[in-house]
């Protein structure tokens, strides 16, 4: 084996980082990673930073040269701006890993166009985020910078990257589009998907309504070519329309398991699929109603339906039928006018497992689990690129331009940020973190007009939906000698996320007092009190968990919940959706946190780039016993992971991105199927990638926030 240092001749910091591990990729010396941080800052950053003499000079330059917008700074006095920047510089905790410092400087900070010199520090970037999204409210800007600098939370990559810039992309992470079956509907969706990909968002498209292969077109029987040729168009589109070469385009298409083209769809990611049909980079997801799982367990044949025949017969789009399949299935089976074909559910599952083993796809969206606890009028019909966004949407219909018959529905944006479990607990800041994050994300919804995609504009303007997630759970558990999935862990996450849920509601209610409730609130489960049934205090019931919460002052009582229910009924909520746990990528590195709420995949993660490779150590490896206490997502029993996520899911109104990790050496189809069935039974709303180690699977980095 080639010695690892030989790969990093040149940059001292890369060499130091490589010495973190030995030649077997095992931990060698954690101090080397810290030395790499120091080397990068002293030898690279110090020599590649623009030498401003003062903050006033820096801001004047940034505005005059078109790097910063002028308007948001004009809402404050210079003394207020200086106070925010000074606080940030004084209290910035620094970077705990080499990966954190390189990600921050190379991917997020504003650089001089000609030379590439850094025009801001990371604390400057957080100051700009606070000032911009506090929108002139100095007290709010102070709260935001305190929580951001303390690393209690951080906005998603598009918000962190683009905030305050004169030339920027959008602040939102991704978009979800419903698609009708007419040629006008399809063409407009292609147009919108391209426009959204250009501005930096991953795009999900619901293919439920698209005619299956062999359905009639304009009365010509058998003319429809099915979903795959259209899927191929989107596959090429997202490769073509990227973010000016800085970030690849990315998309996912969702198809119901009861769609007549489902077997072709599931085969589209297989390695041996014909290249004309294979979806090279486009992700795929399956919408799975309870009815399929019921029939699969009963080993009964299932009917696959042809969507256009349903629309002709009932005047209802198939996407709406799929959202209520328990009510529709027997009706469709017994109607001789509905075109359908019979298959064994085992064949569908076998094809799905084969695709999982070769590509990691499809994602699964358990649509009935999502709708069963949905409090907003309407139906949730699909998820996003990372399977954590689940919101109601309505279908648009587009006529010919001269006829002006467009009927604009509501589509979905993903406005995200993530908290850090360990920091929020350490600082007793659950309340202030949620207030800061909800205000920041709500301001993003106000600044994201997206008028060029009218259905996205409608959904965003009416619902102001956001998604506050979490990271660092596994690292926190390891630090405190708690096993992932243990009874103590389940009790901890129950207490913690009950508080997160409460304070997100409280913050959204306070925003509604100022700006009004989201459209349709009066008909929601929040207005009639359904949501608050069985909501109340959750306290520690194990000594170890009790000790963790000793200094925490923000656990809500039963009385707190009762008072909140009354206030919500009176004033409403500003945000229709509040919580969604995404798979944190770059921002978790910057925060030196374990990703999301799932276990680490590797205790020391290796990242390979075009000219180098770097190593990212899990947090707390310098603390006694922590290395031995870490177990990877491949080794922890799936039941323990699902049990933990299921407790968290009770408190999260949207979804949790759940990546299933299995060893290739013990890969069994039955294990994957049983994992899926257990996740569904425990109330999870989705499954993300199936990651099999020692296999090179494609991974979507766009949606890692």
Automatic annotation (TrEMBL):
Enzyme Commission number(s) of this protein: 1.17.4.1
Protein name in UniProt: Ribonucleoside-diphosphate reductase
Family under the similarity heading: Belongs to the ribonucleoside diphosphate reductase large chain family.
InterPro entries named in the record: NrdE_NrdA_C, RNR_1b_NrdE, RNR_lg_C, RNR_lsu_N, RNR_N, RNR_R1-su_N, Rrm1
GO molecular function, one term: ribonucleoside-diphosphate reductase activity, thioredoxin disulfide as acceptor
Entry keywords, A to Z: Allosteric enzyme, ATP-binding, Deoxyribonucleotide synthesis, Disulfide bond, Nucleotide-binding, Oxidoreductase
Pfam short name (any one): Ribonuc_red_lgC
Gene Ontology CC: one annotated term: ribonucleoside-diphosphate reductase complex
BP term (GO), one: deoxyribonucleotide biosynthetic process
Organism listed in the record: Entomospira culicis
NCBIfam families: NrdE_NrdA (TIGR02506), RNR_1b_NrdE (TIGR04170)
Record carries keyword Oxidoreductase: yes
